[in-house]
Amino acid sequence: MLRHFLYGLILSAKRACPECPVEIKPMKLLSESARHLGLRLNEEHLRAFEIYYRELVAWNEKFNLTAITDYDQVQIKHFLDSLTCLLADEGLTRAICQQPGVRVIDVGAGAGFPGLPLKIVCPGLQLTLLEATGKKVGFLEHMVSRLGLAGVEVIRGRAEELGRDAAYRERYDLALARAVAELSVLVEYTLPFCRLGGLFVAQKGAEGDAEAKAAEGAMASLGGVLRCIVHLELSNLDKPRSLVVVEKIAPTPEKYPRRPGIPSKRPLKSQRSKVSKSQSSKASQ
Question: What is the pLDDT of residue 99?
């Protein structure tokens, strides 16, 4: 049903850099692969993605933004992979694509994936790109300007600090993260940003199921619960991909997120694991 809905969407991103003349390459691989996922990209989308690719490669010669620069590989491993977030939840997809003002934060945005590709095809969403590295922040600001994107805020900072700021805490409908840490760490970075009823979508590989199970206790501590895991098959991509979808069902306690560096050094442990260890210890006595 979701794929039929997406297939029928010819998203009207009419403002995708109208002032930037550029000869469009086909972006054929992206277009065809997106169609297999049920998403049809129009000429404006492909034009914006072509500009994005050219700028990414040019900036990458000066700064280390990505190890992937091949034209076809960027289409699949960066652009298409980012767009798969639209398959995480049907209700979420409808909201992002049809309701202006949906608030999305991309934590650890890097070179803009997945946030900027989603903004290109869903121009009505309000996007925050959070990145700690200054050179990457500079690239993100450049891309927002180059593509003429409105409703995008680029912030240089850390999730552990911004997640305590009342202007951002529990203000977002959707938080995104793409392989920046293990899930038990990511939920502490992201769930403080989600409003009640909001979602966190983590892009993972084959390890998604195992990480989700290990992070159940951390989710609960932060007010979240595992909603589902979506397994993906991307054409021209040999490694499996998955989307771990976490729903915010209770406010995040004020003590989270902990100070910078602590979540990655001491990830929240599963309460179930602690109980099991305690029972094992007693049994051995």
Answer: 87
